[in-house]
Amino acid sequence: MTRTVENAHAYDVVVLGAGPVGENVVDRVRAAGLTAAIVESELLGGECSYWACMPSKALLRPVLARSDARRVPGLAEAVRRPLDAPAVFAHRDETVGHWKDDGQADWLGSIGVRVFRGHGRLDGPRRVAVEGPEGERHLLTARHAVAVCTGSRAALPPLPGLAGARPWTSREATSADRVPGRLLVVGGGVVGVEMATAWHALGAHVTMLVRGDGLLPRMEPFVGERIAGALRARGADVRTGVAVEAVVRDGGSGPVTLVLEGGETVEGDEVLFATGRAPRTEDVGLETVGLEPGSWLDVDDTLRVTGSDWLYAVGDVNRRALLTHQGKYQARIAGAAIAARAAGDPLDGAAPWGPYAATADYGAVPQVVFSDPEAAAVGLSLAEAGHAGYRVRAVDVDMRSVAGAGLYAQGYSGAARLVVDLDREVLLGASFVGPAVGELLHAATVAVTAEVPLSRLWHAVPSYPTISEVWLRLLEAYRDRA
């Protein structure tokens, strides 16, 4: 039998959602001397820690390490055996703390943040109502700010038969402990590509079904082409330009059949739908403050919701960049802005790179896709830069010309592109695809963010023989075409 106990509490800041974004908000405001509470209905640490970034990379790390080792003479024969799937799953489980959040709870307590477990909803301006797991009710009042940091969830298309077919989403794909014989992957974005890479290497026969023309459509076309080619070369079936019209699975178990446009069918043992994200704002009380439930929240550069002087929306919920590192970046900005406003400090003059403006959300968002080969990009693609009105040039280099790449892996195959603003001779974007290119990305992010002139980049000398020498080859290619 549940009980109802109503308790009132007041804090300077109340945060809805205890994922990495919410945790960073409370960390920043506590460091500024404000009191803070955080509300979470699931595990402290959120999607990234238990069902996204951390478990997916734990699954992918042995896949990529084995792939790299197979390209090294003298080592290749030692790693010809199949992956030990149970050992990979055990490492994944350890990485996510066996889906227990004791460590996160201890850390929040150590910085003086009160944790409220249960479902939190806005209850009018500056108020949050929390329904606890045993029916207890808490009413939290925020003196300065409430931050909605509830993230996003997998969005499933409204297909006939899908609701009862028990499809995988990103959560099931990163937490499953059995390798399906045949895995159907619907979608060609980051989740689809990474999970196709992981589960194929673990022993599943993977069929990818992509509505668009290629994989990773937000990156340069050559990136998705190389990854699709590599997946096909390893035996995966990658189909583009196809649409799923229905799902058939008797009783929600056994084989699953996808009906494609035109009537063709494809059968698998499990199906992963990686078809986008939706904001987790459908039941957080937005209607009590005049906002639409289930909507993405518009914010200014301090992450304050448009039209409000107390409500903030940080991370995925504002749809600026659905990436953990960007959400944590926004949280640092929002925490600083909340603390400054609470102290009565002016925020004027903070842009473009001050502590109160999340301007990196616009043209300097980095992303690594842990596929095989890896993909990494920051800033604008060539098409995006052209559409934005810049006068641009693409500078392309085949990474086989880089001595360090050949040493890293025999038969190294990769490509790099810079997008150059010809009027200012600065970088607008950079893209890489190939083994280990994720480690090249931060240098590109610094160059794009700081708008470093190409004339200065000539004096940033890459170490020889490393893969980073691709920077010299790119600058030489630009110079030789000038």
UniProtKB/TrEMBL annotation:
Superkingdom to which the source organism belongs: Bacteria
Cofactor (UniProt): FAD
Binding site residues for FAD: 57, 120, 150-152, 316
Cysteine disulfide partners in this protein: 48-53
Record domain FAD/NAD(P)-binding: where: 11-326
Domain Pyridine nucleotide-disulphide oxidoreductase dimerisation span(s) in chain numbering: 365-471
Record-level Gene Ontology MF annotations: dihydrolipoyl dehydrogenase (NADH) activity; flavin adenine dinucleotide binding
Residues reported in the UniProt entry to bind NAD(+): 187-194, 276
GO annotation (BP), single: 2-oxoglutarate metabolic process
Keywords: FAD, Flavoprotein, NAD, Nucleotide-binding
Name of a matching Pfam family: Pyr_redox_dim
SUPFAM superfamilies: FAD/NAD(P)-binding domain, FAD/NAD-linked reductases, dimerisation (C-terminal) domain
Cofactor comment text: Binds 1 FAD per subunit.
InterPro entries to which the protein is assigned, alphabetical: Class-I_Pyr_Nuc-Dis_Oxidored, FAD/NAD-bd_sf, FAD/NAD-binding_dom, FAD/NAD-linked_Rdtase_dimer_sf, Pyr_nuc-diS_OxRdtase, Pyr_nucl-diS_OxRdtase_dimer
Family, as annotated: Belongs to the class-I pyridine nucleotide-disulfide oxidoreductase family.
Name by which UniProt lists this protein: Oxidoreductase
Native source organism of the sequence: Streptomyces termitum
